[in-house]
Amino acid sequence: CNMATLSVDEQAVTYAALILHDAGLELNADNLNAITKAAGVSVASYWPSLFERALAGKDLDDLIMNAGAGAGPAPAAGGAAAGGAAAAAEPEPEEEEEEE
């Protein structure tokens, strides 16, 4: 099993889960298998049951709307903190006014 196959399998089951959610159908291994087979995609047998267990009891609307929400601000906040510390440690040189 290579990395490309894993990626295709995971994507296929992810899309199947989104289709089931959008249609208001139960997200279970049988339904995930049915969607992937209907799409003509063969996935490793463990993916549908893995997704069923991983998403059980989760609010998919919340997961969809907040996907990646926690990862974005962290680098900016870290950069701002570091930049602020550097600015405090190194005062700006004062500009001399030119007199004519």
Multimeric organization: single chain
Helix/strand-derived category reads mainly alpha
Estimated helix fraction: 55-70%
Largest sheet: none
Beta-strand percent range: under 5%
Backbone CA Rg = 25 Å
Summarize model confidence as the mean pLDDT: 79
In sequence order, what are the helices and strands, one letter per element? HHHHH
Count the helices. How many? 5
Low-confidence stretches: 84-88
Distance between the termini: 78 Å
Broad shape: elongated
Number of strands: 0
Structure characterization notes:
About 65% of the residues lie in helices and about 0% in strands. The radius of gyration is 25 Å and the shape is elongated. It is mainly alpha-helical and about 100 residues long. The chain has helices spanning about 5-25, 30-40, 45-55, 60-65, 75-90. Mean pLDDT is about 80; it is low at about 85-90.
